[in-house]
């Protein structure tokens, strides 16, 4: 049984592809690769959509939960008898945990918004030599063309292999974007959990502060 082989002859023409003893034209092989490349890109973009939905929903839920806990805590603590003075050690513990809770909550919101932050570089860093090369399927690069006609002309000049390279490159760049989103989202979730824990510690410290 022959294995799949693709190559070029000395004249630069692409040789036929052989699969299981059958000859498959090169354009069909490219078409199959293009379809797989587009599927990979669609899959990654689907992950980004799901990630954005999770992050925005999580941010809303966390904000509501923290607001409710603070409201309930204020109502409970307002009924504590404060006439007997305070225990200094618990007083300091209360104020420290309040400050920490505020900081962790703000950081949690910050990481949620950082995770939702869009990317305008298609995986290119500031020092990347390829940043001058336009990706013809990336929105930020497409809008940099002078007009639609220039963009259309550029795409028409592309070979099938060049277009496949753009699709695969965009899939890779979007995977990196999705990974960063999820890691920032995870940090935001842990900070939110820590904020809720600190709120309960604040309530405990406040009760202890007025117990002699």
Q: How would a textbook summarize the main sheet?
A: 2 strands, antiparallel
How far the N terminus sits from the C terminus, by CA atoms, comes to 88 Å
Let me know the average pLDDT: 78
Q: Report the uncertain regions.
A: 1-24
Q: Secondary-structure element order, as H and E?
A: EEHHHHH
Rounded to an integer in angstroms, the radius of gyration calculated over CA atoms is 29 Å
In one word, what is the shape?
A: rod-shaped
Oligomer: single chain
Strand order of the largest sheet: 1-2
The number of helical runs is 5
Give the beta-strand count: 2
Look at the helices and sheets and give the structural class. mainly alpha
Query: Percentage of helical residues?
Result: 55-70%
Which strand-content bin applies to the residues?
under 5%
